[in-house]
Write a structure and sequence with these properties.
94 residues; mainly alpha
């Protein structure tokens, strides 16, 4: 799962700098994503943060919701894990 998340961020969204203005911040994001999807507890903080930033960048670029969700589901996350990641990113980082 770790490699899949990394590849998603690198391949799909590239190395775009984070342009999110921010909600609660990094620690709030990590707490929320793990509260919503405990199965992501084993994923390193920096990898989750990178993916959260990628979601913000994708939103800023106008990427359709189904594309963002599809990328993470195709990479091996469940629908619930994907929803938690996207929700937490939008609530706390974007």
């Amino acid at each position: 799962m770790r490699i899949a998340l990394w590849l998603v961020g690198l391949f799909i969204f590239g190395s775009v700098l984070n342009s999110c203005a921010g909600g609660g911040g990094d620690s709030d994001f990590l707490e929320l994503v793990r509260q919503e999807a405990p199965s992501l507890e084993a994923v390193p903080d920096d990898l989750l943060l990178q993916q959260g930033e990628n979601i913000c960048d994708a939103d800023d670029a106008g990427t359709e919701e189904y594309v963002i969700n599809g990328v993470y589901i195709d990479a091996g996350l469940t629908v619930g894990e994907t929803g938690a990641l996207v929700y937490a990113a939008r609530e706390e980082l974007c």
